[in-house]
Amino acid sequence: MVGEPIVAVADLHVTFGSVTVVRDVDFDLAAGGALCLVGENGAGKSTVLRCVTGLTDPSAGRVRVFGAAPDGSAAFWRRVVTTVEQPSWYAGLTVREHVELVRMAGGHDPADGRVDELLSVLGLRDLGDGTPDRLSSGERQRLLLAAALARPAELLVLDEPEQRLDASIRPVVAGLLGDHLAAGGSLLFASHDPVFVAALGCPVLRLHTGSPAPDAGT
Length: 218
Ligand SMILES: Nc1ncnc2c1ncn2[C@@H]1O[C@H](COP(=O)(O)OP(=O)(O)OP(=O)(O)O)[C@@H](O)[C@H]1O
Description:
Blueprint (H helix, E strand, L loop, with lengths): L6 E10 L2 E11 L4 E5 L6 H8 L7 E6 L8 H6 E3 L12 H11 L8 H8 L15 H14 L4 E5 L10 H13 L3 E5 L3 H7 L3 E5 L2 E2 L6
Parallel strand pairs: 3-7, 3-8, 5-6, 6-7
Antiparallel strand pairs: 1-2, 1-4, 8-9
Bound molecules: adenosine-5'-triphosphate.
Adenosine-5'-triphosphate binds next to helix 1.
């Protein structure tokens, strides 16, 4: 690998109370690369993603993002976008206004076409003038992804981006994430959908309740 990995995880352990839910997890993610965490419910995928974004502290081991421990600073969050935590939507702001707000916060003109493009490809265009509380759970997931993709990020950390999406929209999301990678961004995500993962064609790390399987792979 040329240069320092954008994400470097070594000997990661996470223990809640007396239960170790992540054990001996190791991986590197190169700048511009993608990695998918897979495994059964409770295998620790979200916990690992939370450690990478600094939302959960490792019990042992090392997590480095851009060469430093994730510190939750504004500088860190300018480079990283995540859907690991569900956002709170602003009362009174429409679906479109939420995406525009994120686009603006990323330093872009909200009328530059990207918001329209995201709303359109994610099937939210006709719902843009409504408020998020009126959306179905799948529509809300589409909004979550539209907002995540409205702000350019060097590293996307997504927890099951395909969840609650119907089969027709999953390839669209895979395409958007492929665009992010083609533009030089990096992607770390968890997924339960092998078809979705195959569409991205990225390496997979399989976790098993607290430890990676010896035969990590698809
Ligand atoms: N804050 C916490 N306190 C105690 N236990 C926790 C906490 N967060 C997660 N866990 C436990 O850690 C284990 C791993 O959870 P995690 O959410 O990382 O799994 P996952 O692989 O993402 O699962 P899923 O596929 O269901 O999303 C689970 O048994 C969960 O109950």
